Amino acid sequence: MQLQGKHIVLGITGSIAAYKAALLCRLLRTAGAEVQVVMTPLSKEFITPLTMATLSRRPILVEFFDPENGAWNSHVSLGEWADLLLIAPATANTLAKMAGGVADNLLLTTYLSARCPVAVAPAMDLDMYAHPATQQNLQTLRERGVRIVEPAEGELASGLTGKGRMAEPDAILRFTEELLAASEKKKSLNGRRFLVTAGATIEAIDPVRFISNHSTGKMGYAIAEELAARGADVTLVSGRTVLPVPEGVRRVEVLSAEEMYRASVEAFGGADGAVMCAAVADYTPDRVSECKIRKGDGELLLRLRRTRDIAAELGAVKGGRILVGFALETHDEEAHAEEKLARKHFDFVVLNSLRDPGAGFRGDTNKVTFIDARGHEALPLLPKSEVAARIADRIERLLAAE
Length: 402
Ligand code: CTP
Known about the structure:
single chain
């Protein structure tokens, strides 16, 4: 009875997969949840309100108000009541409206006013699912924190075969249980303080040019956001990035490796641990030219000197605190990561290889392997937010073992 007492608003939209919502509703109720069904007008053509009301043991809601007696169905109080808004099936049309903020039915207004986690289980034909418009809408929703229950591959109602079939009700149930368990864990890092470094450093050559790298900071920002969502007090020491400050996170903006070093040492004092995600320049110009360097005919030699290794320096003074490192490698990945684990006194290293498609810079996914003194754990390709959650889980386990 993992969902005992949980309040779930089950949104149903106009897809042939609406028939599966009946089974899903029963599974949710059997698992102990209270289910309030909200249907879009078109979905009533696919499954009857009578069926859903009987299975959920509550009158279903479709309209903003009851035309008979004028009773108002408040989307705001529905959004407040819910521990989860689960839209299954979610059509391409509803996903597009959610992404665009359209509010032309009760389900959409409930979505816009919901403060609880939101999950959608897309259901549509394979071409509609693969269409760039749908993919972009899903991406927009993902970036706003909506959880997507990936559709399955298989035969579709159209007779075609491909990806687009709504996930099976038991898979959606498992997803729901995991999601709600994770949101309960939210405050598990209350009272803990963490430093996260993220993004690329900038080493000035002259007032115009600099040396930097391709890091966007997405992975580090996702980690800071996840730790803060679990209740931690997070200082994010960030190199240059275009990303907004994650909710509840204190950001300290820096440029050079030296500035990042100073801000990190300060934030590490009094912290329970640090996650070193920044792509820090290993070398910086020996001297910064005060004036713009003019071009000449011959070669230009830049003399570079080593910067300080922030992670190694924190590792040397960490004591019982947690230190998590990253390793971005292009060859001999695991051997290099193991060497960094030992040399920088990391509790574990998050290894990503530039050889893996979908891993590393810029993207919203990452494929990582955790490496610690006990061994290796390779994860599949996951959204960076999910990788951040796995890192936070590991940190929690280390804190619990203290
Ligand atoms: N790191 C750091 N300060 C530096 C360099 C790296 O804090 N000056 C941290 C990174 O944030 C990351 C880890 O150390 O957590 C590994 O960084 P990486 O550049 O891959 O390793 P290096 O020690 O620089 O080794 P190499 O350049 O030989 O790969």
